[in-house]
Amino acid sequence: MSETAQDPTTASGIPIARLYTAADLGDPAALDERIGAPGQPPFTRGPYMEMYRQRLWTMRQYAGYGSAEDTNQRFHYLLEQGQTALSVAFDLPTQLGLDSSAPAAKAEVGRVGVAIDTADDMAELFEGLPLSDLSVNFTINATAPIILAFYLVAAERQGADRSRLAGTLQNDILKEFVARKTFIFPPEPSMRLVGDVVEFCTREVPRFNPISITGYHAREAGCDTVQELAFTMSDAIAYAELLVDRGLSFDAFAPRFSFHFATTLELFEEVAKLRTARRLWAGIARDRFGATSPEAMRLRFFSGCSGATLTNQQPLNNVVRSTIQCLGAVLGGAQSIHVMGYDEAMAIPTDEAVTLALRTQQIIAHETGVADTVDPLAGSYFVETLTDELEARATELIGVIDGLGGAVPAIEAGVPQRWIAESAYRSEMAVANVTAVKVGLNAYVEEAETTELRLFELDEMGRDRQLARLDRHLAGRDDVSDALAALSRAAVSGQNVMEPLIEAARRGATLGELSDVFRKAFGTHREPSLW
Amino acid sequence: MSFALRDAGCEVIYLGLRSTPAEMMTVAMDEDVDVVGASILSGAHLPIAGDLIAERSRHRLEHVPLVVGGIVPPRDVERLLKIGVDDVFPAGTAIVDVVKRITALADSRQERL
Prior knowledge:
The complex is a heterodimer.
Chain A: H1 28-35, E1 58-59, E2 62-63, H2 68-80, E3 86-89, H3 92-95, H4 119-125, E4 135-139, H5 144-158, E5 166-169, H6 174-180, H7 187-204, E6 208-209, E7 211-214, H8 216-221, H9 225-245, H10 250-253, E8 257-261, H11 267-289, H12 294-297, E9 301-303, H13 317-331, E10 336-337, H14 351-367, H15 381-403, H16 407-412, H17 415-432, H18 462-476, H19 481-493, H20 498-506, H21 511-522
Parallel strand pairs in A: 1-10, 2-3, 3-4, 4-5, 5-6, 7-8, 8-9, 9-10
Chain B: H1 2-7, H2 21-31, E1 36-40, H3 45-58, E2 66-70, H4 74-82, E3 87-90, H5 95-112
Parallel strand pairs in B: 1-2, 2-3
Helix pairs in contact in B: 2-3
């Protein structure tokens, strides 16, 4: 917020008054009802009664590069440093259903995450890491069913019982079409795969979150807070409708819905947003889906903080930015948090940068006292006013998306994509015109950058090692064509694909082969040119 | 980026995501463009820029400037320029600056014609 602006507004355009008083909150009894008690609907004050007094948030740094072996080393390192769970970043070929040997994968193997071609690779990724005791997040979407199958096979080989597995599969394809863009198949069959995964996990992997509905990427792509809330809720509504239409009970699957938001630097609006999100979802669960159990109305979320707020210039400033973002996520009641490395505007973070990111979480957890009481900002005239205002604005926008037929038709028509592009352009222009100050970028600029960072360099030989590994795997396995044919039959007939996928994964089918079965059954999606 | 260039009076042909270097240069040839730009966020800018330059030669488009933007660490800006990229815009380059530098490259190409 620029201090020279005549009429300051929040990042989403809510006007900010000079002073907030008790009069802004109205009747105290009505406020008590709106915010309720922590651990009870509408969960404004938090999903659990004791919050961090009972259990701190999960410190879950997103990590992955090179081969399974490379990433396994970083996982061991992070756990040794006191991280409490794992989060896997996959490379683009894995996200797009290509084996490392595919021509289109050439430049990208192991680049933005780990290369996983087979269940063997997945087993190697968790070598020495007991899956029955570790919660693992998988940032994977179009190929989520395949990665889940690989993971279940890896767990099987460790002797870990499915019923004990904890973690989260991102598996939110709608936001891929909107913002993150690693879709493969058209929207309709993509939604069907999401449904297959949730249905299977609800029955078979009950402690695992089979979907994490995500506003984060739309926000990082440039939308504002209100849009982030509305997109997330509208997507969650679309998934819930799909599952209800399959005959599943909302009370049975909704407790394992997980959510994912950004936390940027606009501290108070972010805290208000996270409180609003819980209240919105509780209302939607109750009013639209007739939820009866509190667990089915309870929104739990992960915050990835915000990479888009970081700058190339004066990169050490990013430590300060990340600290404030992490604080916002904690004050907003996050269940798990990733803090960005200060060098992430430039490259994959170094060991030193991820360690500092983890230490940031540990300092906030253990040295500041913010974890000692539940929802410490409740009752703040400003924060409660923002919470109410965001709820009203997001509810209105959810209504607009409803009017377009819901999230899926709105996305097919490119509406949220256009909103994001417009909003991103406005913010870019605000930085260009210095109506929004970015320290080190458009203000307090240093002509000669004094900080020389030692950046992560990917071992370019890693790809060759991965290709050799894949070759050995293919040479050593038995024929998988009947397993692929069984998967194809399920894909075409509408039978849940998970069991045939797991069997094919056990037999050694590759991610590319399994994706090809789906490509053949479903076709592929090419984004229409929207601008 | 498209919006900003259009606001500056440029005609923009945006190919969307996951375009291959060969596709990009084919369109560049067919549409007789003044500048080709690629946004690469994955860190694969060096090999992809190499492929783009090879495809540019294969299409006999050596006279068309090539620019690259994205998550490019400072050490790689030099490397990209050295292999023949005409300008590089790491994340955080002011959008007005990007527009200025791209239009300047387009103008210099027009003058040479």
